[in-house]
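Protocol step 4 of 6: record predicted structures for both targets in the notebook before any analysis. Target 1:
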Amino acid sequence: MNQFFEQFPVVFNALNVGFLQTLKLFFVTLLGALPLGLLICFASKSKIFPLRLFFKLLIWVIRGTPLMIQLLIIYYFPGLVLGKSIWGSGENGRFAASAIAFVINYACYFSEIYRGGIISIPVGQDEAGLVLGMTRSQVFFRVKLLQMVKRILPPMSNEVLTLVKDTSLARIIALQEVIWAGQAFMKGSQGISGAIWPLFFTAIYYLVCNGLLTILFGRLEKKLDYFR
């Protein structure tokens, strides 16, 4: 027990540093994937056939392959082709590669959620808006957008909660996120080896984070109830 209390400050500090990396990857992914997903959604519905085909194929490939494989390809493949890594060395390079992989992956998933939300709005609303002299973009942003947000919020919140947990996959390319930090004490980090209990503490970080996000999304759903 004394050993636990002696090790706890060291472990707690390391887990905090790892979780900050996890949060950083989470927020960068959201900031990139949410708008990119909408652009991919529009491109996949484009009347330009080559453009539509390319993005439909991209969505199919990204959704049909594991994120872990995508991380490995994005991080290692350019270096194998060019002879040197385009990401540079160190933690910053691994983070950049992870962020690109996560943004592309989640943008493709978000694009399908956006598409489902858009096609769920009755076509009559487009026709009514056009009759009133509105442009298609005005109909989308002034009439359909908030209704779409209400309908896509449950599946979108599910994807966001999954994203929090999926950030742990970045350790496959040695990004030092929270699980990496916890697992390091099993292998001998900072004078501590064979300690499995730090891994159990990593679960608390995920539980607290997803608990707060669940409360946030619940409040957002209540605020959008007037669209019923």
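Target 2:
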Amino acid sequence: MGQVTILGETTKNPITLMGSRAGICWGSDITDHEKNYKRGLDCIAAGHGRVMEYVNVEMVLDGYSARVIREWYTHLGGSPTRLQASTRYIDYDRFAYVIPPAIAQHAQAKERYESMMQQISETCSYLEQSLGIAREDAAMLLPLGMQTKIVDKRNLRNLADMSRQRMCTRAYHEYRAMFADICAALENVSEEWAYLVKLLFQPKCETTGYCTEKRSCGRMPKKEQAGDNFESAR
């Protein structure tokens, strides 16, 4: 589907960096990388999430729908920022778009869906090239299903918090897929990232031990059921 590119400004050894930042405030020796690494792990185990905000993540998200990127924008915290491909300057003639799995697997739905996208593309081109309509006005026809590209900057704490909601089975399917792509890309940055992704990135039911959603997928018991099971085990 889409592609995640981790940029070079991303912190390569996040655990070591966290330990170093904490060590400064604790009056510890921060010249020893091994001690910094162990201190960073201690911070995570103790729930000192603020040091996670020093871990920088910069990436390019390319080929995902404008719809899912709009949802991505809503998860603020820790001063994330982003730039998105412009509909004023980029030529979207014959734009690429995302086809939801439910439509892609249904022959008639897929044919109608692709036909509509083709009509939008042709109309945008006609308005701009034949009638002289400004691109920024013709682009108003573009759907949320079109593919887009953004440059994103945020920190580890924000991403870990985001995973609680977006790795949930109830989350929008494209968002879950995009977040899985982000996890895979970060795991390839370094051994420390691979460890953190497995340790910190998980749906909220994994951290609470029960499901907080009104309509559960059944992966974990509801809070009431979890409480009953706990009482029964006592």
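Step 5 preliminary note on target 2. The mean pLDDT is 92. Residues 182 and 220 are 25 Å apart (CA to CA).
Proceed to step 6 after PI sign-off.
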